Amino acid sequence: MRYIAAELLFLCAFPLSAAEITRQPLENDTDLISVTGILNDGDEIAFRNLAAASSKALVFLNSEGGDLKAGIEIGRAIRLRGFATATPPGTLCASACALTWLAGSQRFLQPESNIGFHAAYRVVDGKASESGVANALVGAYLNQLGLSDTAIAYVTSAPPEGIAWLTAAKAQAVGITYDAIDEDGPPASEAGKTFPHDPMGAVTAFYSALAAADGETASALVIPEKRGKGPFNEASIHAFYGAMSQPFKLTGTALRGDDNVRVSYEYVTNDGRRCKGRADVQTTYVFGKTLVSRIKVLDGC
Predict the structure, then answer these.
(1) Helix (H, G, I), strand (E, B), or coil: what is residue 7?
(2) May I ask which residue range the UniProt record assigns to the signal sequence (predicted)?
């Protein structure tokens, strides 16, 4: 597995486009399939189309999370084709991505890798499903993967607020098996340099998700420990921003310091409440990504 480990660590050291699915050949008739960025509806189709040309592959996962259905369906395709999955040191594979990682016929992980589970949530026919409903879908998927009852209980009981990190001790306790990546390539410290520090890009993407009432994408752009909490709750985002007579519109952004962005916006709710507001948004560079960590509303809305 040394050539695979080297390739994984090499890829981590250079920027990759968000939500990008690519394939490249390795040795011994093995392909490396990279899934990078927030998972969106339809990514499962792109993955299946690309994976159809591979008879043997290692799927490299570096994703904040995103669409639950996409994560599950990519996982099903991985298991059907017998592909392995990996999350190298310094990268993040959370929420829907973590479910995809579980599908590997062989799973690879390092102590510095970050696999995190979060209570499932999705929108069905325009309505937000409660975490219990979504977790039923997750439970059925995990059962198809052949995970133990203990492992299924652990994953489906992940907190609705924050992230449950998969440690070596926890994996052993619940019966989730994996192998370590043999580090024979660029230094592991380089693995965290996946994307450039970009507060403006991260904040703009976050508010674009709010405008679309897309709680899954917005949550994926928040630091893991604050996902599902208060204004970062997926169901609350969908319910509030999906009930506008004049949709939410981002009207301005300005960088204030190294990590903070001031935004201005406007919207009108269905009950006629009009807002022209501003907020200071703090970002944090972690796991090789710029994520939203705090929002301070300045004008009461």
Answers:
(1) helix
(2) 1-18
Q: Which of 54, 47, 57 is nearest to 20 (CA)?
A: 47
Residue carrying the six token digits 């204030």: 256
Query: Which ranges constitute the DSSP H helices of 175-284?
Result: 199-211, 215-220, 234-241
Determine the Cα–Cα distance for residues 182 and 179; give it in Å rounded to an integer.
Answer: 9
Distance, CA of 20 to CA of 162 (rounded, Å): 26
Residue 136 CB neighbour total at 10 angstroms = 14
Distance separating alpha carbons of residues 292 and 199, to the nearest angstrom: 8
> How many C-beta atoms surround the C-beta of residue 168 within 10 A?
12
Looking at residue 70, its amino acid is: A
The CA–CA distances, whole Å, from 99 to 45, 135, 167, 188, 295 equal 17, 11, 15, 24, 29
Cα separation, 127 vs 208, in Å, equals 19
| Enclosing H/E stretch for 280 | strand 274-286
Q: Distance between CA atoms of 273 and 300, rounded to whole angstroms?
A: 12
pLDDT tens digits, 60-84:
999 999 999 999 999 999 999 999 9
Q: Phi/psi at 241 (nearest 5 deg)?
A: -80, -10
d(CA 11, CA 6): 9
- Give the whole-angstrom CA distance, residue 8 versus residue 4: 6
- SS3 label, residue 83: coil
The whole-angstrom separation of Cα 182 and Cα 235 is 40
